[in-house]
Amino acid sequence: MEKSKKIVLQTKEVTKEYKMGGVVVKALQGVSLSIHDGEFVAIIGPSGSGKSTLMHIIGCLDIPTSGEVLLDGHQVGKMNERSLAEIRNKKIGFVFQSFNLLPKTSAIENVALPLLYNGTSEEDSQRLAKEALSMVGLGERLDHHPNQLSGGQQQRVAIARALVTNPTIILGDEPTGNLDSKSGKEVMEIFHSLHHQGKTIVLITHDPKVAQQAERSIWLQDGQIKKV
Amino acid sequence: MTFKKLLKIAWKSVRANKSRSLLTTLGVIIGVASVIILVAVGSGLKDFITSEMQDMGSNLVMVMPGDIDLKKVGTGGGGGGVMSSGLAAMQSSKIKYEYLNDIQQVVPQVKDIVGLVMGSATTSYQNKLLSSQIFGTTENYSEMRKYNFTLGGFFNQADVSSGRKVAVIGHKVAEDLFSNSPVVIGEKIKVGDYRYTVVGVIEEKGGQGTMTPDDKIYIPITVAQRQFGQDNIGLILMEANSPEDVPLVLNSTEDILKRKLKDDEFTVLDQKEILSTVSGILNTLTVALGGIAAISLIVGGIGIMNIMLVSVTERTQEIGLRKALGAKPEVILTQFLIEAVVLSIGGGILGVLLGGGGALFLGRFMPTTITLWSVILAFAVSAAIGIIFGVAPARKASQLSPIEALRHE
Q1: What ipTM does the predicted assembly reach?
Q2: Domain total in chain B
Q3: Of B189, B219, B243, which residue sits at a domain end?
Q4: What is the domain extent for residue B10?
Q5: Residue B6 to chain A, least CA–CA distance (Å)
Q6: What proportions of chain A, in percent to the nearest 5, are helix, strand and coil?
Q7: pLDDT tens readout for residues B277-295
Q8: How do beta strands B166-169 and B235-240 pair?
Q9: Is the N or C terminus of chain B more exposed, i.e. has fewer CB atoms within 10 Å?
Q10: What is the CATH number of the domain that holds A154?
Q11: A145 CB near a chain B CB, below 8 Å?
C-alpha cells in the first residue's frame, strides 16, 4: 500500500445530530478520516457507536449536520437529494447485511439494476452485469431468482451489483452478518480478491474477526474515533 | 432512464402480483363495463323507438289528447311524467270520432286518416288465455300501415259503422290462441266480456313495441268505444299526401280543432316533433344511466389508490434499495404512476371487452346499440383515473427517505 496514492474519501470534523422524541442525540461528534484509493478499511464499533450513521454519510445516503465530506473530489456534505442520488449511483457500491435483492427478479437483472438509473443501454447493461457476476463466480447462474440461491450466493449477487457501475468505493454494511461462517468466509474471500484487483473497500462491522481481515481498522465509540 | 424501461418495470411488478392486480382493477373493469352496457341499453332504446317512429312514415301527423309541451320535454327533466300523463289523457280524451270526417272534408292534403282507441283486455279461445293490446280503429288502418294477411282480411266500413263485433288478430295472437290452425276465420274469441268473430290474421311483421301488429287485436273503433267505456277517441293518425304537405295539414287540423276544443285539450304533432321529443327524453336517460355507471368508475379509481398505497408500504425496502442505487425521486414517482396507469388501462381494456360482450349478449333480449363514444370515454376516464389516483401513492413512494426505507422490515 503506497501512501502516495490519492485520497478518495475524506471526512473533516463531521458531526450528526438527530432529534429523537425531543431529545437531541449526537450520533457523530467530529469524525475526521481519510481513505486512500485501493485501501481495504474496516470501520468497527459496538452498536450505538455511530457506525451506521457514519456509513450513511460515507454512502451519501445522508448529509452531516456540520463538517465536510469529500468523495472523489466532490463536496457531498451539502448536496440535495437529486445530486446525492447521482453520486451514489456513480461512486458507491452498496453491500447490505440483508442482501436487499429484488425478489422474483433474476440475478442478472438484479445486478443490472443500478445501470437502469444512469442511462446505460440495454446491451451494455446485460454485458456489464454478466461480467460482474462472473467476477463473483456466479457466471453460470444468471437467470436464477434470489429464492433459488443460497445466502452466500445471494450476497455474491449483491456484491456483483455493487461492482457493476465500477464505483469509487465498495461500501459493505455488516456483509457477513446474516451468513453462516462458511458462506461468510466465501464472501470475505471475494472482498479480498476485489481488493487485490485494486478496488477500494470499506466494511462497517461490529465483528473484530471481520475487521482483522482488513488492512486497517478504524475503531468508533460514542460517535468519535477511538483508535486507528 | 427511458419511458420504455419504466414501463417494463411497471409491467413486471403488475405481473408479479397477478391476483392482486386483477382484484385491484376489478373496480375499473366493472365501472368501464357498466358505462358501456348502460349507454348501449339507453342508445338501443332510442334507436328502437326512433326507427319505430320512422316506420310510420315521414308524412305522419298525429293528434293527441291533452297539452303536451314539447319544449319542456325536449330539454329533459320530467320526461317520464309527460309520457304517463299522455296515457292518462287518452282515457279522458275530448277528441270525438266525428272530427275524422271534419278534418278529411276540409283538408284535401290528408291522404288517409284513422282514429284509434287503445286498451288492453284478457282474450280467450276455448281454454287458452292471453292478455293482449286491443286497437280499436277504422277500416283504412290496415291500408295505411300496409298490412298483408295470411288469412281473411281487415274489417270494412260497414263493420265499423254498424259496430259489428269482428276482430283481426296478429300473427302471434293467432299462434297463441289457435296454434296456427288454418280454421281460424269465423271462430269466436272472447275479449273482455264481448265475443268477437275473427275475420283476418295479419302476416308476421317482426319487431316489438306499439307498432308491430304481431301481438295486437284490431276491432272496429265503434265497438272499442263500448268495450272500454269511452265516448271519444284516444288518437288520430293522419298521412299527408307528401312531406311538403305536412305543415299545412298540421296547421289546418289545429285550426279546425281549435273551434271545437280548448287549447289544452289536444296537441297536433308531426313525426319530426315526435322524434325530437322522444330522442330528447332518451338522451337524458342515456346520460343518466352513463352517469350512474361513471360513479362506479370513480370508486374503481379509489380502489386503485388504496392498493397502490398498500403496495408502497409493502415495497418500502424495494423503494429504499432503488433510491440507494441512484434512483432519483422523480424516477420513483414515475415508476409508481406508470404502474397505476398500467393497472387502470389494463382494467379499461378488460372492461371494454366485458362491456362489449355484455352489451352484445343483452342485445339478444332487448335493443342495444354499442356507441363508440361510450367506449372511448370509458377508456379515457379509466386512464385518467389511473393518473389522478396514482399521484398520491407515487408521491408517497418518491418522498421516502432511503435510510428509513432500507431499515423497514
Answers
A1: 0.93
A2: 2
A3: B243
A4: 3-49+280-407
A5: 9
A6: 35, 30, 35
A7: 778 888 888 888 888 888 8
A8: unpaired
A9: C
A10: 3.40.50.300
A11: no
